[in-house]
Protein backbone atom coordinates (compact mmCIF):
# COMPACT_ATOMS: atom_id res chain seq x y z
CA UNK A 1 0.00 0.00 0.00
CA UNK A 2 1.02 3.58 -0.56
CA UNK A 3 -0.07 6.15 2.00
CA UNK A 4 0.66 9.82 1.40
CA UNK A 5 0.28 12.45 4.09
CA UNK A 6 1.50 16.01 4.42
CA UNK A 7 2.32 15.84 8.14
CA UNK A 8 3.61 13.13 10.42
CA UNK A 9 5.52 12.77 13.67
CA UNK A 10 8.50 14.67 12.23
CA UNK A 11 6.39 17.82 12.06
CA UNK A 12 5.34 17.38 15.68
CA UNK A 13 8.97 16.82 16.67
CA UNK A 14 9.99 20.07 15.02
CA UNK A 15 7.07 22.44 15.50
CA UNK A 16 6.12 21.49 19.04
CA UNK A 17 9.68 21.03 20.24
CA UNK A 18 11.31 24.02 18.58
CA UNK A 19 8.47 26.52 18.85
CA UNK A 20 7.88 25.87 22.52
CA UNK A 21 11.52 26.24 23.53
CA UNK A 22 11.95 22.80 25.04
CA UNK A 23 13.33 21.07 21.95
CA UNK A 24 15.22 17.89 22.88
CA UNK A 25 13.03 17.02 25.88
CA UNK A 26 9.76 17.39 24.00
CA UNK A 27 11.14 15.68 20.92
CA UNK A 28 12.16 12.72 23.08
CA UNK A 29 8.63 12.59 24.50
CA UNK A 30 7.14 12.77 20.99
CA UNK A 31 9.50 9.98 19.88
CA UNK A 32 8.43 7.84 22.84
CA UNK A 33 4.70 8.47 22.28
CA UNK A 34 5.08 7.85 18.57
CA UNK A 35 6.83 4.53 19.20
CA UNK A 36 4.17 3.44 21.69
CA UNK A 37 1.10 4.58 19.76
CA UNK A 38 2.01 4.33 16.09
CA UNK A 39 5.20 2.32 16.02
CA UNK A 40 5.99 2.80 12.37
CA UNK A 41 8.11 5.29 10.46
CA UNK A 42 7.64 6.20 6.82
CA UNK A 43 9.65 4.38 4.19
CA UNK A 44 10.27 7.68 2.44
CA UNK A 45 9.97 11.27 3.60
CA UNK A 46 10.17 14.20 1.20
CA UNK A 47 11.38 17.37 2.83
CA UNK A 48 10.50 20.38 0.70
CA UNK A 49 13.30 22.76 1.66
CA UNK A 50 13.07 26.51 1.19
CA UNK A 51 14.84 29.57 2.53
CA UNK A 52 13.06 30.77 5.70
CA UNK A 53 12.28 34.26 4.35
CA UNK A 54 10.71 32.84 1.18
CA UNK A 55 8.75 30.20 3.06
CA UNK A 56 7.54 32.72 5.62
CA UNK A 57 6.44 35.12 2.88
CA UNK A 58 4.55 32.34 1.06
CA UNK A 59 2.86 31.17 4.26
CA UNK A 60 1.74 34.62 5.35
CA UNK A 61 0.51 35.41 1.82
CA UNK A 62 -1.94 32.49 2.08
CA UNK A 63 -3.65 34.38 4.93
CA UNK A 64 -5.47 31.33 6.21
CA UNK A 65 -7.30 31.19 9.51
CA UNK A 66 -4.39 29.42 11.22
CA UNK A 67 -1.27 31.60 11.36
CA UNK A 68 0.17 30.95 14.83
CA UNK A 69 3.50 29.57 13.62
CA UNK A 70 3.78 32.25 10.95
CA UNK A 71 3.20 34.89 13.60
CA UNK A 72 6.31 33.65 15.44
CA UNK A 73 8.38 35.10 12.58
CA UNK A 74 11.29 34.15 10.38
CA UNK A 75 13.48 33.24 13.35
CA UNK A 76 11.26 30.28 14.11
CA UNK A 77 11.20 29.36 10.43
CA UNK A 78 15.02 29.29 10.41
CA UNK A 79 15.13 27.06 13.52
CA UNK A 80 12.50 24.72 12.08
CA UNK A 81 14.39 24.47 8.79
CA UNK A 82 17.66 23.71 10.59
CA UNK A 83 15.90 21.08 12.69
CA UNK A 84 14.35 19.39 9.68
CA UNK A 85 17.65 19.42 7.76
CA UNK A 86 19.43 17.88 10.76
CA UNK A 87 16.72 15.23 11.02
CA UNK A 88 17.03 14.53 7.29
CA UNK A 89 20.81 14.18 7.59
CA UNK A 90 20.40 11.53 10.28
CA UNK A 91 17.68 9.44 8.61
CA UNK A 92 18.22 7.89 5.17
CA UNK A 93 14.47 7.82 4.47
CA UNK A 94 14.56 11.55 3.75
CA UNK A 95 14.82 13.05 0.28
CA UNK A 96 15.43 16.79 0.41
CA UNK A 97 13.71 18.63 -2.44
CA UNK A 98 14.46 22.23 -3.42
CA UNK A 99 11.20 24.07 -2.79
CA UNK A 100 12.20 27.37 -4.40
CA UNK A 101 10.87 26.47 -7.83
CA UNK A 102 7.37 26.57 -9.23
CA UNK A 103 4.80 24.12 -7.90
CA UNK A 104 5.20 22.07 -11.09
CA UNK A 105 9.00 21.96 -10.72
CA UNK A 106 8.75 20.88 -7.09
CA UNK A 107 6.18 18.22 -7.96
CA UNK A 108 8.44 16.92 -10.74
CA UNK A 109 11.40 16.74 -8.34
CA UNK A 110 9.33 14.80 -5.80
CA UNK A 111 8.14 12.40 -8.49
CA UNK A 112 11.69 11.87 -9.74
CA UNK A 113 12.90 11.17 -6.18
CA UNK A 114 9.96 8.84 -5.61
CA UNK A 115 10.66 6.90 -8.79
CA UNK A 116 14.35 6.64 -7.90
Would you tell me the structural class of the helices and strands? mainly alpha
Distance between the termini: 18 Å
**Quaternary structure of the protein:** single chain
Q: Could you give the order of the helices and strands?
A: HHEHHEH
General form: globular
Cα gyration radius (Å): 15 Å
Give the averaged pLDDT, no decimals: 81
Side-by-side strand order of the widest sheet: 1-2
Content of β-strand: 5-15%
> How many helix segments?
5
Contiguous uncertain segments of 5+ residues: none
Largest sheet: 2 strands, parallel
Characteristics:
single chain; mainly alpha
Outline the fold blueprint:
Blueprint: H1 9-19, H2 23-37, E1 45-49, H3 52-62, H4 73-90, E2 94-98, H5 103-115
Parallel strand pairs: 1-2
Q: What would you say about this model in short?
A:
The protein is mainly alpha-helical. Helix content is 59%, strand content 9%.
Architecture overview:
There is one protein chain. The chain has helices spanning about 10-20, 25-35, 50-60, 75-90, 105-115; strands at about 45-50, 95-100. With about 120 residues, it is mostly helical. α1 packs antiparallel against α2 and α3 (about 50-60) packs across α4. The longest helix is centred in the C-terminal third of the chain and has 18 residues, at about 75-90.
Amino acid sequence: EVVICDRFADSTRMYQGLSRGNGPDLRAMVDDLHARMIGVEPDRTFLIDIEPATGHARATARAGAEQRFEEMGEGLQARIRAGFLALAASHPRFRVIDGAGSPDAVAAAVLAAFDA
